[in-house]
Each structure stands twice: as structure tokens, then as C-alpha cells.
Amino acid sequence: MFSLTLERGRFLRIRKGVTDKEVSSVFGCPVPNVFCGGIIKLSPPKRFCYARVGDTYATVSKREGVDETLLRAENGGRPVYPTLKIWLP
């Protein structure tokens, strides 16, 4: 459906026959100016880290340099346990 082009996957080039509905369903939101040969800039991927033994939101926020409240909100306040993938704001 899409092909990655330019700068290590930061952009997508729209192929012939792809509709705006298909592009919107892949991105999960409306994407303007969808046409054959058009280029869509991708947002940077979200950062994450894995929790270590004894980690809490406070220790992870201090280690990663982010606000503890935002970190807790980003992860839905679920309990922290070793090997948990923690999304960073």
C-alpha cells in the first residue's frame, strides 16, 4: 500500500490507486492532500524504556529526565514491574 522513501523512513510516498480513506485508516486520523506520488511526513516514533527491578514512576522519571505526572498519565497509571515497556512523554 505504501512505500518508504527518503531519510530512513521519515516519509511515505503514496502509490497509484491508494485512496484517502485507506491512508486515513492506516494513520488513524485524516491525512490531507493524498494523491499519487504525494509524500507524507511521518511523526517521530514515541520513545520508551523498559522498567528495571525496583523501578517506580519516580525513579524512571528521574533517570529519563521527564515529569513524573506526565509519565504516569502517558502509561495510564498502571503498576510498574521489571520488563514493563514504559512510554515516555
Describe what you observe in this structure.
The protein is an alpha+beta fold and 89 residues long. It is 26% helix and 19% strand. It is built from three helices and five strands. A three-stranded antiparallel β-sheet has the order 1-2-3, with no helix packed on it. The chain has a two-stranded antiparallel sheet with strand order 4-5. A hairpin with a 5-residue loop joins strand 1 and strand 2. The chain starts with a strand and ends with a strand.
In short:
The chain is α+β, with helices and mostly antiparallel strands and 89 residues long. The protein contains three helices and five strands.
Keywords summarizing the entry:
single chain; 89 residues; alpha+beta; Membrane-bound Lytic Murein Transglycosylase D, Chain A; 2 domains; 3-stranded antiparallel β-sheet; two-stranded antiparallel ribbon; 3 helices; 19% strand; elongated
Radius of gyration: 18 Å
State the domain count.
2
Q: Taking all residues together, what is the mean pLDDT?
A: 79
Structural class label: alpha+beta
The portion of residues forming beta strands comes to: 15-25%
Main β-sheet: number of strands, strand sense, barrel status?
3 strands, antiparallel
Number of extended strands: 5
Helix/strand order, N-terminal first = EEHEEHHE
Q: What is the number of helical segments per DSSP (H or I, 4+ residues)? A: 3
State the helicity in percent bands. 25-40%
As laid out across the biggest beta sheet, the strand order is 1-2-3
Distance N terminus to C terminus?
A: 30 Å
Low-confidence stretches: 4-8
